[in-house]
Amino acid sequence: MTIVKNISDLSNIIADQYSKSLKIGLVPTMGSLHNGHLSLIKIAKEKCDVVWVSIFINPTQFNNLKDYESYPKQNLNDIKILKSVSSSIYVFFPAVNEIYNKKIVAQKFKFDNINKVLEGKKRPGHFDGVATIIMKLFKIFKPSMAFFGEKDYQQTLIVQYIIDNYFPNIDLIICPTIRNSDGLALSSRNKLISDQSINQSKIIFEILNFVKMNFSKIEYNKLIKIVKKRIEAINKFELEYFEIRENITLNSYDPKNQKNNYRAFICVKIEGVRLIDNLLIN
Ligand code: AMP
User: Fold this and answer.
1) Ligand 1 proximity of 149 Cβ (cutoff 6 Å)
2) 51, 89 contact by CB (below 8 A)
3) What is the atom index within ligand 1 of the atom nearest the CA of 150?
4) Minimal-distance CA residue to ligand 1 atom 17
């Protein structure tokens, strides 16, 4: 396994890989790796000649300093995990200054509607930060393919926007959400929540499935009320949002347009930690 911390070393290796016409796959992460991340790496290995995993907790995508500071970090363990899955992975592990050169600010983007709703609305500036780091990583790696999780579905739309507007040669591969045996989506943030609440968090996926089953049977506003009631019946659980939106534009649910593809999005705050999930429902 090759670990690189600075851009100049990385550029030399990438230039060599390019000269050999190797197909480069990029898996951007913020570390605290779990099986969700590993599934992206596995898919990348199947599709590409070379897989780069970046581990970087990107400061500009945190709209809340406390959230940034408490984000789980386990650098040594991450390296161990990556070594155990493959000896041929390349890891980019930069410091903040290497990426931002002391100017830790996000670029501003015009994403239209996709940035104005859901996570974009609740975390102002978040997707500008996400897009900033993705632009930087895409510029450095010029990958053939980039691998992102459906778990952060709205983020994949932002990545697609970046690709469409700046990097049309990159293929975005959206990888399925990996869940624990109860259906809870794996997330680095799960580590910040007590075992008891994690057990109770299976309600999130149960609710999404309930909505999928009942989408055509129960009227929209009633469905929303049921979701809120079921989530908030649990001690320490607060529903930050539950919404059904069109799959690509993220436009609001339109009962007159049943032909659209709709996706349910949920964010539950548990012990101060925001867990998000989503499911295509028709
Ligand atoms: P993060 O380290 O949380 O920024 O995630 C890095 C990448 O892994 C993103 O593309 C996420 O969408 C993806 N990811 C995170 N959790 C999961 C999961 N449970 N299943 C599949 N992909 C995931």
Assistant:
1) yes
2) yes
3) 12
4) 36
Token digits of residue 263: 């996706």
Q: Is 279 helix (H, G, I), strand (E, B) or coil?
A: strand
Torsion of the alpha carbons at 152, 237, 242 and 120, rounded to the nearest 10:
-50
pLDDT (tens digit, 9 = 90+) per residue, 141-175?
Answer: 999 999 999 999 999 999 999 999 999 999 999 99
% of the chain exceeding 90 in pLDDT: 97
> What's the rounded Cα separation, in Å, for the pair 58 and 185?
22
Whether ligand 1 lies within 6 angstroms of the CB of 40 is answered as yes
End-to-end Cα, the chain, rounded Å: 42
pLDDT at 24: 98
Cβ 37 under 6 angstroms from ligand 1:
yes
How confident is residue 258, by pLDDT bands cut at 50, 70 and 90?
A: confident
pLDDT at position 251 is: 96
Those residues whose C-beta lies under 8 Å from the C-beta of residue 242, and which sit 6 or more positions away, are 207, 224, 227, 228, 231, 264, 265, 266, 267
DSSP label of 27: E
Closest approach atom of ligand 1 to CA 147: 10
Q: Which atom number of ligand 1 is nearest to the Cα of residue 189?
A: 3
- Tokens for 182? 């109860």
Say what the pTM is: 0.98
Task: Note the pLDDT tens digit of each residue in 183-195.
Answer: 999 999 999 999 9
Q: Is the CB of 177 under 6 A from ligand 1?
A: yes
Of all protein residues, the one whose alpha carbon is nearest to atom 22 of ligand 1 is 149
Strands (E), 130-229: 145-149, 171-175
pLDDT for 279: 98
Place of tokens 């290995």: 45
